[in-house]
Amino acid sequence: MYCFRPACRYQVRFDDSLDNIIVVDGVPVIDKSKVEKLLAKISREFCRKGALIKPSDIFLPWDDSTDKSKGFVFVDFPTVDEAIFALNIMNGHHFDARHQFKTNRFSDIERYENIDATYVPPVPETYRPRVSLAWGSWCQR
Asked: How far apart are CA 34 and CA 130, in angstroms?
């Protein structure tokens, strides 16, 4: 049903999903002196592939006990479509000789965390031979 009131027509729908954020694993672990250089290089690598981001769109988690980064970053995109595009083109991207990016949606992290760890082997189906349709039409002639 369409609402004809001006307030309804121009109402902004708030998207509270986190599908516009991707997690990039395989980032070099660095100290604080190299943060700006790393963020700029990550931004350039994304832009070269067509996913336009700025260093301010990247969040680098920090381990205070070692005073180094954790080896992954969160990248915030304006839209879900841009995030999906970047997710697909940057997965498996070689950042340098020793680091390769692995990308995931931020919303998938929770799903991976709640996977049951117990292995249940699949039950094999019993084999039943099937009649060939080509063989059946040949015999009926």
From this structure: 65
Amino acid occupying residue 78: P
pLDDT for residue 131 is more than 80? no
Contact indicator for 95, 103 with CB cutoff of 8 Å:
no
Q: Which of 52-61, 70-79, 128-137 has the lowest mean pLDDT?
A: 128-137
| Mean pLDDT across 120-138 | 77
**Which of 63, 115, 108 minimizes the C-alpha distance to 87?**
108
Q: How far is CA 109 from CA 24, 50, 100, in A?
A: 12, 25, 19
Lookup result for tokens 């083109």: 89
Q: Residue ranges of the domains in the chain?
A: 21-111
Cβ-contact 76, 57 below 8 angstroms? yes
Give the pLDDT score at 85: 94
pLDDT surpasses 80 at 110: no
CATH annotation of 21-111:
3.30.70.330
Token pair 């969040």 is found at: 59
Query: Token pair for residue 68?
Result: 């180094």
